[in-house]
Structure formats: C-alpha cells, structure tokens
Amino acid sequence: MRVAVFGTKGYDRRFLSEANAAHAHELIFLEPRLDLSTAPLAAGCAAVCVFVNDCVDAQVLEALAGSGVRLVALRCAGFNNVDLAAAERLGIDVVRVPAYSPHAVAEFTIGLMLAVDRHIPRAWSRVRDNNFALDGLIGRNLHGRMVGVIGTGKIGALVARSLRAGFGCDVLASDVVTDPELERIGVRYVPRATLLEQAEIVTLHCPLTPVTRHLIDAAAIARAREGLLIVNTSRGALIDTAALIDGLKSRKIGGVALDVYEQEADLFFEDLSNEIVGDDVFQRLLTFPNVLVTGHQAFLTEEALTAIAETTLASISEAEAGRELANRVGTERVAG
Ligand code: NAD
C-alpha cells in the first residue's frame, strides 16, 4: 500500500524502513506534520501514518477522503487528535498501536519522579560549573511516601507495581476499573478526589478524554497536600497549566515533572533553539527551579520504536488484505 508518513523524523524512517522489509509497502516519508495545508501531500496514497501532534480533525479527514485515503495509521497509543466520528462518517478506518512498550514510558516516569524529587538536573548543572554545594538539593525518600497513580492500565500498572513492590511506597490508585493483581500487592483503589487529597506524589496515566481533561485544575490543587509533586507522562491537557503555575507560585505544589504539555504541538519534536518561543505559559514553567520538562520522549526506546513500526505496518497490511483490523479505534472508544 502507498502510505504518506507525516512528521517523519530520522528514527521513524529508520525503524519503519527496517520493519517494512517484511511488508514491502511504499512508504512516502514526509517531514511536515499533517494539517489542512499539508493534507494534499497524501494525494495518491491509500493510507496516512501519523503521530501524536498531527491534526486529524474533520476538515483534514475530508481532504484526505477526497484524495482517496482510506486508512489513518497512528504510530502511537493515544488517539485524542483524531475526530473518530468524522472518520467513521467518511469511511476511513483508524488504527493505533495500543501497546508497544509500556515499560519504556513507565521507566521514564520513575526516572522523572526521582530526578525532580532529588534535584538531579540541578545537581548535574552545578557540578559542571564546579559548584559542589548541596544547599537547596534536599530530597525525600520515595520509600514510605504516599503516591497516587491515576489510570492503572498498561503503563500505570507498571508504575504502581514498581513504586509499591520496588520502592516500598504506599500506593493509592484511581481508575474506572480495578486491577486485582495490584490490589494483591497492596495498591489501594480510592476515589480520585481522595487520591488527590491524600497523595504526596501524583502520577498521571489515564487517557485524555472529555472526562479527564484538566483533571488537575485549580480546585484539585487547592485540595491537595502541601508540597504535592506531580508527574505527567500521559497527555498535557490532563493538567490546567495556568492552575499549575499558580500552584507553583503559591508553593502549594512542591515539584513538577512533565513529558507532555497542553500546547506541545507548537513546540515539541522540533529544534527551536534558534527561535524566539512565543508561548509565555511554557516559558514561565521553565523558570521554576522545581520543574523538569522533557519533550515527549518517554516512549523513545529501541524496543518501543521497533514495536511501533512492526504493529503499524502489520495494521496497514491487514487493511490492504481486507482483513479485520485488530488495532482499529472506533467511536465507542471516545467515552470514558
Ligand atoms: P491504557 O489504555 O492501557 O490505560 C489507561 C487506563 O486509564 C485504563 O486502565 C483506563 O481504564 C484508565 N482510565 C480511563 N478513564 C479514566 C478516568 N476517567 N480516570 C482514571 N482512569 C481512567 O493506556 P496506557 O498504554 O497505559 O497509556 C496511558 C497513557 O499514556 C495514554 O493514554 C497516552 O496518552 C500516554 N502515553 C504517553 C507516552 C509518552 O511518550 N509520553 C507514550 C505512550 C502513551
């Protein structure tokens, strides 16, 4: 199948090309992201392959459908950037990679948690400046801390297990379904409001839906414990960034580690080091000594990129052969 691969980076080209040896699709690697202005680049392609910040709204889907596209293959798990109802109406199938390497994201989450809690980036920049003073670098043990995990699916369950069984944390969890295996090791499911009131650290692993949007907002922060540490490797809009900044300024929030950001589509995955970044909210976030931000890289391991490429191309082969799409995303998935 002829596939327009939008937002191609060097690593996409490498891992998709390697995995394509088993499929022989015609992959057209395109650097621009998919949006209404770039959609015509998919002319002559039956499928587009996109990532987290490509725009796949109704207008874009209409343009794609008009040029013969019948499949949107997301090379990621989240699908909040796709108008699923419009896709269904236009007869375009949407597939994703439901699980590639939850370990990649879970391990990075723990890394961020430790890094912000123990001030590792600040310590490293001091040492590079021959400043070996330790003032301001006091952390807390993870052992015995009360950590709240919101969303205990594939990634959240690994994080909860690692915190509970590995570090000996007191782990609270919130999800619409419970995981008996986690309960067996002592993870306690509580209502989200209770978790947000009791946890010293909150880590987010639920999908972004209308229900979960801004689940960390001014009201949640007001009810939280003093010095709350927040880690988000899920989706930026789970947090109201303006409220987060207020919480940092008032010192109610003691630390923040983010791999995702509400308005990341305008920033992440690009080298903007020669540009003036106009996002004042993001720039304000970077001024806090207790905030650590990475550019949506939690997934970025060899294992995950291999799995993403193999699953994406297998889905495209299924579509080409008219087989049932194992990783199809339907409108029924929007709820929850
Ligand atoms: P998953 O579907 O396995 O788990 C999501 C969990 O969230 C499920 O258990 C679900 O029941 C739960 N959930 C749904 N609605 C909820 C709600 N209202 N409150 C609490 N829990 C709720 O997904 P996953 O593979 O564990 O991925 C989690 C998220 O991580 C994805 O949605 C994606 O946005 C993000 N992600 C980020 C990266 C990255 O590189 N930073 C990589 C992969 C995934």
TrEMBL record:
Entry-linked SUPFAM superfamilies: Formate/glycerate dehydrogenase catalytic domain-like, NAD(P)-binding Rossmann-fold domains
Keyword list, A-Z: NAD, Oxidoreductase
Span of domain D-isomer specific 2-hydroxyacid dehydrogenase catalytic: 5-329
One example GO MF annotation: NAD binding
Keyword NAD: yes
Coiled-coil segments on the chain, per record: none
Residue ranges of domain D-isomer specific 2-hydroxyacid dehydrogenase NAD-binding in the record: 110-298
Matching Pfam families: 2-Hacid_dh, 2-Hacid_dh_C
Protein family membership: Belongs to the D-isomer specific 2-hydroxyacid dehydrogenase family.
PANTHER family cross-referenced by the UniProt entry: 2-HYDROXYACID DEHYDROGENASE HOMOLOG 1-RELATED
Name of the protein described by the UniProt record: Hydroxyacid dehydrogenase
Organism: Sphingomonas koreensis
